Amino acid sequence: MIEILLIDDHHLVREGLCLLLDSHPRLSIVTELGSAEKALEYLEENKKPELILTDIVMDRMDGISFVRIVKKIYPEIKVAILSMIEDKAKVTEAFVAGADGYLSKGTDYDELLFGVLQIAKGHKYVTASLSLRFLEDYLDHCPVTVDPAELLQRYDISERELEVLKMISEGYTNAEIANKVFLSKRTVEGHRQHLMEKTNTRNTADLVRFGFQKKLLQ
């Protein structure tokens, strides 16, 4: 069981996130607090959680300052930002401070849970929509000419798998993709898994990053 400390200064937001995260059999919210100061007091006096999820904008101490302090005192604890702010400068600032991940409150249920699990495992993770913004900037400055047909052959990616990859990059869920291409959700999940295996990527964000880097996605 992955024990999580949740920090957000909005009580209703904390309640909703607790219900969401506690619905997963591998996740458990050990406590939820309304400020970074209370969280630091909690960490001094209680068993340390495996993961801390914190908002950025809070009274007095902000989330990024909190990340910096926690990583200095308790480097073994995974700490991720969970915020409505989707600003590339803030994402960069959070990782410079030591954050292990940056999750958007606007992301869907599946990706939020996936991201939390990846961070708990020790992987860095950024919400896919934010990853795409960084990739778009990179591609704007590093244009590359490629042969898509050659790439599909090299990685053994079928036209159907490419179609699924494009819809994944557009933010569609497995169920939504299944409805659009008239396949079962399980078949779409299989395509997603095969794509990750063929491209040697660890998760959806890595897969989408691969697609843009290789110019399979525009």
Q: Describe it for me?
A:
- With 218 residues, this protein is α/β, with parallel strands linked by helices.
- The chain has two domains: 2-129, Rossmann fold, CATH 3.40.50; 138-213, Arc Repressor Mutant, subunit A, CATH 1.10.10.10.
- Helix content is 55%, strand content 13%.
- The protein has helices at residues 11-22, 36-45, 63-73, 88-97, 109-120, 128-141, 148-154, 159-169, 174-181, 185-199, 204-213; strands at residues 2-7, 27-33, 51-54, 78-83, 101-104, 125-126.
- The protein has a six-stranded parallel sheet with strand order 2-1-3-4-5-6, with helices on both faces.
- Helix 8 (159-169) packs across helix 10, helix 9 crosses helix 10 and helix 10 crosses helix 11 (204-213).
- It starts with a strand and ends in a 5-residue tail after the last helix.
